[in-house]
Amino acid sequence: MIYTEKQLLEKKKEISDAKTELSELKGEEKALLKQLKDDWKCNDLSEARKKIKSWEAEATDLTTKIEEKSQELESKLEEIEENEDN
């Protein structure tokens, strides 16, 4: 296929625009990775995912402990109320 000068110029502009966009995206990626490192002490997304899994496990454990303690307190409260009624 033979391109006209106009078509070649359009392709050149498309390539130039794509290069600009790529450069902008690389800049954004660099900024986000810096933020990830500064805010969360992670060097990459893999480390961040591991931290998230760890935090999720901690949250689950804490939720379980809270529920258990809450049930204990409810039982003690019921016991105290029963003793007061007697």
Average per-residue pLDDT, rounded, comes to 95
Number-wise, the strands total: 0
Quaternary structure type: single chain
- The low-confidence runs, each spanning 5 or more residues with pLDDT under 50, are none
Largest sheet: none
Strand content: under 5%
Q: How many angstroms does the end-to-end distance come to?
A: 99 Å
**Count of helical stretches:** 2
Structural class: mainly alpha
Q: SSE order in H/E notation?
A: HH
What is the total domain count?
2
Helical content band: over 70%
Q: Would you mind describing this structure in some detail?
A:
The model has no long low-confidence stretch (mean pLDDT 95). Helix content is 90%, strand content 0%. By secondary structure, the protein is mainly alpha-helical. The chain is built from two helices and no strands. The protein has two domains: 1-41; 43-86. It has helices at 5-40, 45-85. The chain starts with a helix and ends with a helix. The protein is rod-shaped, with a radius of gyration of 30 Å. The longest helix has 41 residues, at 45-85.
